[in-house]
Write a structure and sequence with these properties.
about 350 residues, alpha/beta, Rossmann fold, 2 domains, 4-stranded antiparallel beta sheet, 10 helices, about 25% strand, globular
Length: about 350
């Protein structure tokens, strides 16, 4: 797992360090302090495919194209040039971490300075075929003994010259938009192929809505594509498209966590569409899957209820693997204050502002 993040000249951050990171990381702060920017930085840090990079303008925000996961030529001057502080070539992120025994992944990052990662934005460029786009250069020392230094570029010409980003890792993004119902149906189909997968998913969702009896992947008469249907004890099953936004959001999230083999989960405005009284059970489900599937979670929130619910849920887990990182402006700069279990206990009991 990552243990610290450092952003220099990225979004509104001149020099921001977030440390220590835990398995569950909740990012809070006032409007326009950079909460979503943290997720965008992590997205770039983990990405290895240029088409994936091009989708970033529409992943967490409204893009010029107006369509999720689609990019427009206008995204280059409106998004990419504003992504870096004062439009300068800048270090996006340095990450350091400690090895997890028995896990051979890009997150076995040494704490040694020469094993940090640097991602630099080099402005817009044009490749030999005439395509324009953001040029991003990643340099670093591949973790582990015996690995040589690597230097490569993700840009319009593809990935090269050294091949894949050794620090890239599969990740999940849950934005404020709901997933396509057909994609969720395909995910659920994959869950049912896992040993005990369907039972695990039902147990998680029943914590949110105890009325849930079973789920079925089916193509209803008169429809063109198969969807997931939920039985709540009513005469007819409900299509997942007709359940509440919060329930659909959690269904999609839990399915992805079970089947994706991702190492990182990025959630923007995690409380959106979720009833506040259900938040402790929701956080319990997220934390349980994060631990069992070895996923590190980064989520943003505006809600005090969400923070308190996460704290309460993690306090009841075998390990309190949770940190709240509050972004705040100090003399014109954005800084992060990290609250551990003891600090959060005091803040919540005394009514201190932690959003």
């Amino acid at each position: 797992m990552m243990t610290s993040l450092k952003f220099e000249n990225f979004r509104g951050f001149t020099d921001l360090t977030i440390s220590p990171l835990e398995r569950i990381n909740l990012i809070a702060g006032a409007n326009n302090t950079g909460k979503t920017g943290i997720l965008e930085g992590l997205y770039l840090l983990l990405a290895n495919d240029f088409n994936q990079v091009l989708q970033l303008p529409s992943v967490f925000r409204s893009s010029v194209s107006g369509q999720p996961n689609q990019h427009s030529q206008d995204d280059f001057p409106t998004f990419w040039q504003s992504l870096f502080y004062d439009k300068q070539t800048a270090i996006l992120a340095k990450v350091s971490g400690k090895p997890d025994s028995g896990v051979g992944s890009a997150f076995q990052l040494s704490t040694a300075p020469n094993n940090s990662i640097q991602i630099l934005y080099e402005g817009l460029g044009v490749d030999p075929s005439g395509r324009s786009g953001p040029h991003i250069r990643i340099t670093g020392q591949h973790p582990g003994a015996g690995h040589p230094s690597s230097a490569f570029q993700i840009g319009p010409g593809g990935v090269g010259p050294a091949g894949r980003n050794p620090f890239a890792s599969p990740f999940i993004v849950l934005s404020t938009r709901l997933e396509q119902p057909t994609r969720d149906a395909d995910l659920y189909n994959q869950v049912t192929l896992l040993e005990g997968g369907e039972e695990r998913l039902l147990d998680l969702l029943r914590q949110v809505d105890p009325r849930l009896q079973k789920l079925r992947y089916a193509k209803a008469p008169g429809t063109q594509v198969p969807l997931v249907y939920a039985h709540f004890g009513l005469k007819n099953a409900l299509s997942m498209t007709q359940t509440g936004q919060g329930f659909s959001k959690l269904f999609s999230l839990f399915c992805q966590m079970l089947v994706s083999k991702a190492k990182v989960l990025l959630i923007d405005e995690v409380e959106n569409g979720l009833y506040y009284e259900s938040l402790p059970e929701i956080w319990k489900g997220i934390a349980t899957l994060a631990a069992s599937e070895d996923i590190q979670v980064f989520a943003t929130t505006h809600s005090r209820e969400c923070i308190v619910a996460a704290h309460d849920a993690l306090s009841k887990m075998p390990a309190y693997d949770f940190a709240l990182h509050r972004l705040q402006r100090v003399k014109g700069r954005i800084e992060a204050v990290t609250h551990d279990q003891q600090m959060l206990e005091v803040a919540i009991k005394s009514g201190m502002e932690v959003r």
